[in-house]
Design brief:
Blueprint (H helix, E strand, L loop, with lengths): L3 H8 L3 E2 L4 E2 L6 E7 L2 E6 L9 H13 L7 E5 L12 H7 L3
Parallel strand pairs: 4-5
Antiparallel strand pairs: 1-2, 3-4
């Protein structure tokens, strides 16, 4: 059975190509539910019309699916709560020039 830490670490490989940073640092990853070997990743995008949305979803499926012991991978895109720059890590805020 995969651990939440393994899922988070794998998701650090999923980059938003427009911002050049991973979805964990950007605050786009919200949570992961682990039910035996099955993983559901709850995430968001910077905007509803994000052109990288399909690529990010495919990358989530790929990297989480590569974790040993993972069965089914589901991705749950949500805009509740909506993403804001405050959700970014301090490093991401610094690099991208936010407060």
């Amino acid at each position: 059975m995969p651990s939440k830490e393994e899922v988070v670490e794998a998701l650090r490989q999923v980059e938003d190509p427009e911002l050049g940073m991973d979805i964990v640092e950007l605050g786009l990853f919200y949570d992961a539910e682990i039910d035996g070997p099955d993983v559901t990743v709850h995430y968001t995008l910077t905007s509803m019309g994000c052109p990288a949305g399909q690529m990010i979803e495919e990358d989530i499926q790929r990297v989480v699916g590569e974790i040993p012991g993972v069965g089914d991978v589901k991705s749950d895109l949500t805009f509740d709560p909506p993403w804001t720059p405050e959700k970014m890590s301090d490093d991401a805020k610094f690099i991208l020039g936010f407060g």
